[in-house]
Amino acid sequence: MNRTWPDFSRREQNVPELMDDPACDLRQLERTYAQFEQVNALVSGWEVVYRRELRPRLRRDRAMTLLDIGCGGGDLARQLLRWAARDGFSLRVLGIDADERAIHYAQAQPPRSGLSFRAALSGELLRGGERFDFIVSNHVLHHLTDAEVPELLRDCEGLCRGVTLHSDIERHPLAYAGFALLAAPLFRDSFILYDGTLSVRRSFREDELRRLAPAGWQVTRPFPFRLLLKHEAGRA
Ligand SMILES: C[S@@+](CC[C@H](N)C(=O)[O-])C[C@H]1O[C@@H](n2cnc3c(N)ncnc32)[C@H](O)[C@@H]1O
Asked: Which InterPro entries does the entry mention (predicted)?
């Protein structure tokens, strides 16, 4: 971890995460994917987002489809499928990731009906004419440059006939310090501590995300230090 106190006044866009290095240690990368499940249980708040935003829109008369962009090891995709099944809904979930190592890891986990993974970018799916009822992403926006964010959001507008939800950290010194304190004893032998603290520095503030988002996208802070970028098809 960086020993000097970082500058939080702007996004860190020049220091890449270890997990994005094509030559990084594969064993540690796979431990990182494995530990995302616990990280997300601790910091991401997806159960509340699922209950507020997705469950009320699920239907019992047909299976609905959900795309998880930047799925990593697939923990959120699996979790959403589990919650939907628990609530009696049939959901088909596709997780995509730009990194083939993530897809390889996700596909090596126990299979589950309705769940699939593919190495792909959102633009490829759009050009292939694919459509989904829901799109989600978790901890992906901060991997993108400012210029890439509106491109991803335009792809989502074309791909989604329902609601799209991008959830990420909000850049803040307290989020940085809090995550470092939490992660140091819990997540060892992986990239979680280094990449997690760097992710806070790479992430957006609410006003920055609002400025980048095209018309029709809404930015909220559902929990402290978390931002949710939402779009609903057919709504101005
Ligand atoms: C921090 S990980 C989060 C993984 C997962 N969403 C989770 O919360 O456990 C970010 C993932 O996004 C992927 N990613 C980054 N940019 C992407 C893009 N433009 N399209 C698809 N995946 C992307 C990375 O390869 C990485 O696996």
From this structure: Methyltransf_25, SAM-dependent_MTases_sf
